[in-house]
Design goal:
Radius of gyration: 27 Å
Shape: rod-shaped
Keywords: Membrane, Transmembrane, Transmembrane helix
Strand content: under 5%
Largest sheet: none
Number of helices: 1
Helix content: over 70%
Length: 64
């Protein structure tokens, strides 16, 4: 009977470790991807702003 209790606890501990490792990886990858995506969007915005024509006052068309 004691052997079954130890086996059950061991299974639970292994499962918990696997969930914690996988959860940590998911959080890390989401954080890293979010940073990369943000940089890519900012770079695209800079490019767009550089190509957008300004009027004689240096204002963009949507600022009028």
């Amino acid at each position: 009977m004691l052997l079954l209790t130890i086996y059950g606890s061991l299974k639970m501990a292994i499962r918990l470790v696997i969930y914690l490792v996988l959860g940590g990886l998911v959080i890390f990858m989401r954080y890293r991807h979010r940073k990369k995506t943000r940089k890519r969007i900012d770079k695209g915005t800079e490019r767009l702003m550089a190509k957008t024509p300004k009027d004689e006052n240096g204002k963009y068309p949507w600022e009028k």
